[in-house]
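Quick one, tokens below:
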């Protein structure tokens, strides 16, 4: 299952946005209002929960400065990645897009596609407000 956020413009250079996204504490600022829990567990690893959804632990899996940040599920029960692609638009401005890739059975994919799509779009939208 693949979900792409719309591309958003962020008033930060690619390096500034990359630095922001690789510091997982900053994801709390991007979370939707429906967040019920956010906790940094270790460097590069955090837990969050949205109302009505199970807790999810994400960890920094890969990063390529200043253009790519990949977070992945810490558990193999829900195997997925969330990739932030960052491109420079002009001096001090970036274009960012979030890509969600998950390997779920068809029933699970059908149930979570809507909420995950909304979540990914909210993260991108909140990124554009930085």
């Amino acid at each position: 299952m693949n979900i792409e956020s719309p591309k958003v413009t962020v008033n930060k250079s690619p390096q500034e946005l990359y630095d922001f996204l690789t510091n997982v504490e900053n994801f709390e600022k991007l979370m939707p209002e429906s967040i019920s829990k956010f906790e940094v567990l270790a460097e590069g690893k955090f837990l969050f929960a949205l109302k009505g959804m199970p807790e999810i632990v994400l960890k920094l899996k890969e990063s390529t400065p200043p253009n790519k940040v990949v977070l992945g599920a810490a558990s193999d029960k829900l195997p997925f990645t969330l990739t932030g692609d960052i491109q420079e638009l002009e001096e001090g401005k970036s274009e960012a897009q979030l890509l969600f890739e998950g390997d779920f059975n068809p029933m699970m994919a059908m149930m979570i596609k809507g909420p995950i799509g909304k979540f990914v779009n909210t993260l991108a939208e909140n990124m554009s407000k930085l």
